């Protein structure tokens, strides 16, 4: 009986509670404002007040430190190029030919200068800046805009087309710098930042990972440098676009591990692949340019070839790792060390090399006269030998740019040519003439500023060469070749006797 009474009480309570709830809803509903249209609005729920954005990210997972360290030392590089509509040879016959063809004969017609730009990295507080050679190649004028918007005119200290690295100098002190990092320690999958200063937007930073190392994409090889180019790029997926060339690739400490150089793209814009010259090569090139004025290229003295499955089967090789020696040059360091065609190089100074780009990168770190340990396979057996590296002339001598001085000869003054003028005109030396009107060269038609690059069959590298070669001619006519600062090429005959 008690159980039935309990159940009945619960049921009555439920009915009573439901009635109260419905009544309360109706009372509240009467107070609502009735909407006059039928449009339905989504339910919106507002969050609380603004919260602090100072999120603590675990060490090594953010790019703040690297960006703060590197961006002040990345600059905008602006270049200016003179454009000529034609380049004709000049000769003493010009006055007669102009009488028939007009004043335009034999002259290049100036047009508005072209403007180029890129990025650069300050590596020394007293004004030394690294950029790409292709950023400043043949520029008439180079200007640098700092991260703090200061502007300086820059001079070219030196350039190396085989690695696409150039060194500039501005007259400034106490500049922010980026310290060199060790590109050898970079690992595939490691985070890196690409820092540039494109289109003078001030520094821009993009992030990516190291996708590969030792990449060869065949962009530096030309008929001029043949097999001298060094391509062992760091490949990343950090966004790099035109204007970022010459900028910094840094690790999460903000250390310089590469100079951004190229992108793989069919459109000209970033498409997922960018390439940087590793800092191991950059630092060596910069050091050479500062010490010697020229890059000291060390050569093994052997023609090499990549090994793939087909080639290994053809040659009966038991490995796909290493670099195959196709030929050894006579009197080279490789020959003197006992290396032969058919050997497979596997390491340089105990650093493994699996492909030719890695071998070239390792050798590029050294200078002529340096000795390196070469590990190789011959007849399936591991062997080692020490190779003394040589230069292109099969010598161990270092090539140092001479401090050429002005020379006075036959009434004219001959001055050395600056590195910037050489780069602009595509020449490797010469002698610039001044004071032609009061000299024995006045009858040739030559004008002040003409740069002599060849006398007869001899190359002129410095002012002293002019006197040396012209003194040796006792009679007859000597032909002098050269170029004017505006790019106009010319030749002049001069009588000796």
UniProtKB/TrEMBL annotation:
Which domain of life does this protein belong to? Bacteria
Look up the record and give one Gene Ontology term from the biological process aspect: proteolysis
The record's GO molecular-function terms, alphabetically, read: serine-type endopeptidase activity
Designated name of the protein: Do/DeqQ family serine protease
Which NCBIfam families does the entry mention? degP_htrA_DO
Q: SMART domains from the xrefs?
A: PDZ
Which catalytic residues are annotated?
A: 134 (charge relay system), 164 (charge relay system), 245 (charge relay system)
Give the keywords, sorted.
Hydrolase, Protease, Repeat, Serine protease, Signal
Q: Which residues bind substrate?
A: 80, 134, 164, 243-245
PDZ domain location, by residue? 289-353
Which first-to-last residue range defines the signal peptide?
none
Please name the InterPro entries in this protein's record: Chloro_Bact_Ser_Proteases, PDZ, PDZ_sf, Pept_S1C_Do, Peptidase_S1_PA, Peptidase_S1C
Q: Which organism's genome codes for this protein?
A: Pontibacter chinhatensis
